[in-house]
Specification:
This protein is of the alpha/beta class. 47% of the residues lie in helices and 10% in strands. The chain has eleven helices and five strands. This is CRAL-TRIO domain-containing protein.
Length: 288
């Protein structure tokens, strides 16, 4: 008689197989140094494999494109004083609370759009995402986004081209970083904008985007399961008051810049001091 493998055994086999994929991807990437070495942790490699359904070649291509972009764009070098003007109205900022799993929360209020520079808006968002990632608790790789549409209109909306670029950056260079995106009570005329941008969103990201309405039982249940209502601002159905003090937030982010520099190992000249580590050596297994 044949016995079925237990679910525990299957899970162990699957975990071992994925660990092996991570090792294969590291070998395929070759020797890494400096910031690339710092960036390419095993957890990072796992996220890229997950984003490409564990296809090694596709994950390698995706990660190499990210490394090339980071080398040119240098997101870890962006400092608060460079993007602070984008945040004067509090259109996007890191919340002073976390979701129920301890993940950072970014609050977005498109109705408070105050600039017209696509690059400025993108650079500001990238800065805040990088900071949120730096502040992830151990064992967590994702963040939550809350979007408040109060005051939003087609006049304050970002251009379709900018929205498409943000979606591209998020999906291709920050894979598996989103836990949930709550679009809270969007107005009816948002549908026209949504009908266009949704075609730029891949299936995995699409599943994480939730339309939330205060009078909908499922929406209320979703928000309560994801956030502590005592900390959640009333704009999102909670009991807390949402206050954004730009000067106070600026002081906090300036301190965060010091943490960022320390994490990336910058020396006095702004150079990364990480050492070169040779790529793993592939060891041929003996025939059995």
């Amino acid at each position: 008689m044949f016995r079925r493998k237990s679910s525990h055994t299957n899970q162990a086999d699957d975990s071992a197989s994925r660990d092996a994929k991570v090792s294969e991807l590291r070998v395929a990437l070759g020797p890494l140094s400096g910031r690339r070495l710092k960036f390419c942790t095993d957890v990072c490699l796992r996220r890229y494999l997950e984003a490409r359904n564990w296809n090694l070649d596709k994950a390698k291509k995706m990660l190499e494109e990210t490394l090339k972009r980071r080398s040119n764009y240098k997101p870890e070098e962006i400092r608060w004083h460079e993007v602070a003007h984008e945040s004067e109205t509090g259109k996007v900022f890191k919340a002073n609370f976390r979701d129920r799993l301890g993940r950072p929360v970014l609050i977005m209020r498109p109705g408070k759009q105050n600039t017209s520079s696509p690059e400025g808006n993108i650079r500001h968002l990238v800065y805040l995402m990088e900071n949120a990632i730096l502040n992830l608790p151990e064992g967590q790789e994702q963040m939550s986004w809350l979007i408040d549409f109060h005051g939003w209109s087609l006049n304050t909306n970002i251009p379709i081209r900018t929205a498409r670029e943000i979606i591209y950056i998020l999906q291709n260079h920050y894979p598996e970083r989103l836990a949930i995106v709550a679009l809270y009570s969007p107005p009816r005329f948002f549908e026209a904008f949504w009908k266009v941008v949704k075609y730029f969103i891949d299936a995995k990201t699409f599943e994480k985007i939730k339309f939330v309405y205060p009078n909908n039982k499922d929406s209320v249940k979703l928000m309560k399961s994801s956030f502590n209502t005592e900390n959640l601002p009333s704009e999102f159905g909670g009991k807390a008051t949402l206050n954004y003090d730009h000067e106070e937030f600026s002081r906090m982010m300036s301190q965060e810049d010091v943490k960022t520099a320390k994490f990336w190992g910058f020396d006095d000249d702004g150079n990364c001091k990480a050492k070169v580590t040779p790529g793993p050596v592939r060891v041929a297994s003996s025939a059995s």
